[in-house]
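Writing this down once: the sequence line spells out the residues, with the fold written below as integer tokens. I am pasting one below:
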Amino acid sequence: MTEGLSLPIPPPDTIDRSIETPLRSLIYSLLWLARTVRPDIYYHVTYLAQFCHQPTVEALTAAKRILHYAYSTRDYTLAMAIDPAAPQLTAFCDSDHAGDTATRNSVSGYCLYFHGMLIDWWSKKQKSCTALHSTEAEHVAMSEACTSAPAIYNTLTEFFPSAEPITINVDNSAVQTLVTQRALSSKLKHIAVRYHAVRNWWQGPLRKFTPVWIPTDDNQSDIFTKALPITKHGVPIIDKFTARLLDIKDRRVKLVEKLRAAEAQQLHAQQQQLQ
């Protein structure tokens, strides 16, 4: 597959209860797939899940197209291999701004890497607040990311007591300034206290997080906040997003070759012993 799959999402203008059961069944199956091994379809599936209680033919068609996309790229999978040179824990967080045209809630996206291996990801709507501008939306996304990562960080410290702080990558420099400095702009004083807890996590004695600014094109959590255009979705962007994406067929061939080489080496050793 060389191109992304176009996935237009129309509004739920007509409701068809006869397709409610098939739509729910398909969405639940896709949710399991997206949460376990296919992060590239996570946003799209969670978006379509909103139509389960108001099923439409358009929503079912879109779900089938996601299934077709997942099936056509079934030979690609996340590789469970670590890079010792990469940081222990690296997180990416991002947010759109008022992406939901009905409620004007923003969508947060997050992914976490362990030594370059993707281990956690999610996409969720910011239902607790309606961000007035992009900086607030990004700040809420970082706060939500910082509430998800500590569980993995605490588990890591059980094995590595000197675990490094988690690097939180964000593409909004104002959010980085908001977290690392005490000064607070008058335009941001309305942000709830719960979202400022990320300051204590960075400035506290444990210092579990280190916020870092990165360019938008390098933010790998962008795929969890919006439907990307065709030119940005597909195998090339998935390859960049997952960092390690292997072809199952190639892996099988290499495994067979490795087994045959091991058998030949063992046979040769046995022949030498007989001589």
Summary: The radius of gyration is 22 Å. Residues 1-5, 242-249 have pLDDT under 50 and may be disordered. Residues 248-274 form the longest helix (27 residues). Helices lie at 20-36, 42-48, 57-72, 134-159, 173-180, 197-203, 235-242, 248-274.
